[in-house]
């Protein structure tokens, strides 16, 4: 069974690398950076776009506190705790990355907007695997899924 899992992961990684090599990067449409609020308050450009990211910080911090405060979420394994920690760190980091992007929306800054989201998305996938498929396999998938997500953002 262990050999089959290793083979499956190896095939998945090879397919991912081949797809990255043979497919061209998808260019970002410049109209994507045209947001509704272009006003400046207190010297902050696109103020409402920037300020709207603050709730992500609040939710991320509350989630982290509840993960570690008397096991509020009743997490049964270390893998679940690690997965949810990565998720809430990603959510909290969205506030900084997205605020930075909205200060000066462009392709270079968009990486910092998408990277924390990718961390949250990939960690929630590992949590689904932990809770629905197998705790051990899900825990082992956290780092590979995070790496695939980060590499895909860097490739983009």
Automatic annotation (TrEMBL):
It holds the Pfam family Ceramidase. Belongs to the alkaline ceramidase family. GO terms for cellular component: membrane. It comes from Dillenia turbinata. One of its GO terms (biological process) is ceramide metabolic process. One of its GO terms (molecular function) is hydrolase activity, acting on carbon-nitrogen (but not peptide) bonds, in linear amides. It is a multi-pass membrane protein. The lineage of its organism: Eukaryota, Viridiplantae, Streptophyta, Embryophyta, Tracheophyta. InterPro entries: ACER (IPR008901). Keywords: Hydrolase, Membrane, Transmembrane, Transmembrane helix. The chain crosses the membrane at residues 7-27, 47-69, 81-103, 115-131, 138-155. This is Alkaline ceramidase. It is found in: Membrane.
